[in-house]
Write a structure and sequence with these properties.
By secondary structure, the chain is mainly alpha-helical. The chain has a domain of 63 residues: DnaJ domain (Helix Hairpins). The protein contains six helices and no strands. The longest helix has 17 residues. It is elongated, with a radius of gyration of 26 Å. The N and C termini lie far apart (65 Å).
Length: 156
């Protein structure tokens, strides 16, 4: 499991995990564009052309990793989900814990798609008060002016 210090110290803006930046493309790039960018960079950093250069070897491995991920539709969808998630962990950590992250993130997303009673329907109020406060509705807990009727006095 990921430690809190690892999450707090992770810099998601660093290019090491940005496969699109490694290949010189963006999220709208096609598989053909990604492959073309890979070929240009792979020729430059190939170990046969840079024997003994550890930095070139690491770059070549990162290029291969990026190409394999972005040219496979399922892997790319997972990668894009991580990239757009805002979670401050590396992609490899995301992959090893993605089920946990996705379950946790479920509650962070506002979901109004499948309500039991649609607004304006039977039993539902069409006023702003019927919406959740997170959706811009009235938050009755924050409004201390709401007055409840007094209980009736019981005569003995």
């Amino acid at each position: 499991m990921t430690s809190v210090s690892e999450i707090l110290s992770y810099d998601k803006s660093a290019a090491q995990d940005d496969y699109y930046e490694v290949l010189g493309c963006d999220q709208t790039s096609t598989v053909e564009q990604i492959s073309a960018e890979f070929k240009v960079r792979a020729l430059k950093y190939h170990p046969d052309k840079n024997s003994g250069d550890k930095k070139a070897e690491e770059t070549f491995q990162k290029l291969n990793e990026a190409k394999e991920t972005l040219c496979d539709p399922e892997k790319r969808a997972t990668y894009d989900k991580w990239k757009n998630s805002g979670v401050a962990v590396s992609y490899k950590t995301w992959l090893s814990n993605k089920e946990h992250f996705q379950q946790s993130m479920h509650w962070a997303q506002m979901n109004t798609k499948d309500r039991m009673l649609p607004e304006g329907g039977e039993g539902a109020s069409s006023s702003m008060a019927s919406r959740r406060a997170s959706e811009g509705g009235v938050n009755l807990g924050a409004n201390k002016t709401h007055v409840y009727p007094k209980a009736r006095e019981v005569k003995h």
